[in-house]
UniProtKB/TrEMBL annotation:
The keyword Signal applies. Keywords: Signal. It comes from the Bacteria. This is GLPGLI family protein. Residues 1-19 form the signal peptide. It holds the Pfam family Porph_ging.
Length: 273
């Protein structure tokens, strides 16, 4: 009996080590929906459509997700579209920043913590905080993404954002119901996914949320470099709440500068959501 118990324990130990070594690298492509609205006297519908198409094309980006059983590292790939999206028409220029190629988000599921190295207006911050909680609802709908069978899950929340526009003295708090749609595969049994999303019993290969669409185009399993997940350490350390307060203050300063231009342009900024 003692010999049997020893053998069973040995097999169990091998299984645990194998799970801990489970790793990979997933590549994602993203695209974004964009709504633009201008005074018809400032820009014709045709010019507005051209501007929108230019911006949406530049907002297509590629990302990599390195992962193992407990950690993940999400970062944007360097490319011609890795910088801010910009387009101009009829003397008007729009610039939309959706993150820098130097930004990195690290998540540790075992510790329940994340680190987000993010640049804002020329200054880099290191946001360290607890992982958000997602109450996923897993349905019965399935589909194939590449060679993987995926199952659909959704998460709905009431989101708060802050809106500030020229002519306003204070930011306005607006609420909206946002539904996140995720497709995950249990063929890759890790709880990671694009950006800050996680918590399903398999890797998220496709995700749609708030006008953004991420789709996985390649997964390389047990790739040796995936084990080299480097924890971000660049930037001024702040909590999520502190970073949001700094962002709000920076946006107010920007709006004050636009207001002082006196050119009659209406500018609106929304933070959060």
């Amino acid at each position: 009996m003692k010999t049997l118990l020893l053998v069973l324990f040995s097999f169990w130990s091998i299984g645990v080590v194998h799970a801990q070594q489970f790793s990979g690298v997933a590549t994602y492509h993203s695209r974004s929906q964009l709504e633009l609205s201008f005074d018809s006297t400032a820009m014709s519908p045709q010019e507005m459509q051209t501007l929108k198409q230019q911006l949406m094309k530049q907002m297509q980006k590629s990302y990599t997700l390195k992962f193992n059983a407990k950690e993940s590292l999400w970062e944007q790939q360097e490319s011609v579209n890795s910088g801010p999206a910009s387009a101009s028409s009829n003397g008007m220029e729009l610039v939309i920043s959706s993150g820098s190629s130097k930004d990195k988000r690290y998540q540790n599921l075992e510790e329940g913590k994340y680190r987000n190295s993010q640049e804002m207006m020329g200054k880099r911050f290191l946001i360290i905080d607890s992982l958000p909680k997602y109450e996923w609802k897993i349905g019965n709908e399935t589909k194939k993404i590449g060679d993987y069978t995926c199952r659909k899950a959704t998460y709905t929340k009431i989101s708060e954002a802050k809106r500030f526009a020229t002519g306003m003295e204070e930011m306005e708090v607006i609420q909206d119901t946002i539904t996140t749609e995720a497709w995950f595969t249990m063929d890759i049994p890790v709880s990671h996914g694009p950006n800050n999303y996680y918590g399903l019993p398999g890797l998220i290969l496709e995700l749609k949320v708030n006008g953004r669409h991420f789709i996985c185009t390649e997964v390389v399993m047990n790739y040796k470099k995936a084990a080299e997940i480097q924890v971000p350490d660049k930037g001024s350390r702040v909590s999520k709440k502190e970073f949001e307060a700094i962002s709000e203050e920076k946006m107010k300063e920007m709006m004050q500068r636009y207001r002082g231009n006196g050119d009659g342009s209406d500018i609106e900024i929304v933070i959060g959501g």
